[in-house]
Write a structure and sequence with these properties.
The structure holds 2 protein chains of 2 kinds.
Chain A (H helix, E strand, L loop, with lengths): L6 E5 L3 H11 L3 E8 L2 E7 L6 E5 L8 H12 L6 E4 L3 H10 L5 E8 L2 E7 L5 E7 L9
Parallel strand pairs in A: 1-4, 5-8
Antiparallel strand pairs in A: 2-3, 3-4, 6-7, 7-8
Chain B lengths: L1 H21 L6 H7 L4 H12 L3 H19 L4 H7 L5 H12 L3 H7 L7 H7 L25
Classes of the chains: A alpha/beta, B mainly alpha.
Chain lengths: 142, 150
């Protein structure tokens, strides 16, 4: 029986830039940062959580150059996967992100029957959603 | 070369996000193209090449998807919903809805109950594809064009 999601991964265009965004802007913490030859195993995680998010760059030795170019195009089109986080004070977090210079919001905090969520993109185009779970008095709006 | 493609994609995605966010407002192609920092004509051409449809059509599908949500989830009138989602005339809204969804807003409302999936899933899953392959080619920018973009 599988017991835990241990590592998730997300494709980024540049690991240093990704680390800066996910740690200094979004507020995650750095996990592993290990160099193996030219390969850098770099992860971030929610502070206090055990699940690592591996920041993966398309390219050798995993991808040939043509494949890497396709992946980079898909990342920047927003067509690859994303991440969904939970937060305890989503409106406060929204203000914090703005104060840290984050501008690429896809959705401002919005109430739904299951909670309040918002959307933001990382610098490369990946979609990140953040949810504060819990019932809110919902008035349906477009 | 490939860096240029990636940079253009990213800027077009930012403009697409702006349409997703501000669909209810009067939007014109110039305002959205400005988000991507490119000229109107180049914007329409490259948006179509990257995302497979014109920005105009993308915005209309976004508006129609939100109207479908309101038709399912609220008791608001078709006319109110038409304005809620950024159309400026009921006639255009109903025609566009029918073209994209394949039935009228009123008929759609009768046939659909509220959904219980998370909103981000709904946004993706219920965005209509154009019914019966009748995608009109249009480079104008939707019904709300007459108003000034904010």
């Amino acid at each position: 029986m599988i017991t835990k999601l241990n590592v998730a991964s997300i494709m980024v265009l540049n690991k240093d830039e990704a680390l800066d965004f996910y740690v200094n802007k979004l507020g995650l913490e750095k996990g592993q940062d290990v160099k193996q030859g030219s390969y850098r195993w770099l992860t971030v995680r929610v502070p206090g959580d055990v699940t690592e998010i591996s920041l993966e760059e398309p390219g050798p030795p995993v991808h040939d150059e043509a494949t890497a170019a396709q992946l980079r195009e898909l990342i920047t089109k927003g067509a690859l996967g994303g991440l969904v986080f939970k937060a305890d004070d989503i409106r406060g977090l929204y203000e914090t992100l703005k104060s840290r210079g984050v501008t690429d919001f896809t959705q401002e905090p919005t109430d739904h029957f299951y909670g309040t969520d918002m959307g933001v993109r990382d610098p490369f185009g990946n979609a990140i959603r953040i949810l504060q779970q819990g019932k809110v008095a919902q008035k349906a709006t477009a | 070369m490939s860096r240029e493609v990636e940079d253009l994609n990213r800027r077009l995605l930012r403009a697409r996000d702006a349409m997703d966010r501000a669909y209810a407002e009067p939007l014109d192609v110039r305002a959205v193209a400005a988000v991507a920092h490119i000229s109107d004509a180049h914007f329409i051409r490259s948006f179509r090449a990257v995302f497979g449809e014109t920005p105009h059509r993308y915005l209309q599908r976004r508006r129609v998807e939100r109207s479908m949500f309101l038709l399912r989830e609220t008791d608001r009138s078709v006319t109110d919903i038409c304005f809620d989602v950024g159309f400026s005339s009921r006639g255009t809204f109903v025609r566009m809805f029918r073209e994209i969804v394949g039935e009228t807003p009123s008929d759609y409302r009768v046939g659909h109950e509220p959904m219980v999936a998370p909103n981000c899933f709904q946004l993706a899953a219920t965005r209509p594809v154009v019914a019966a392959g009748v995608a009109r080619r249009s480079s104008s920018f939707g019904d709300a064009t007459a108003a000034t973009a904010s």
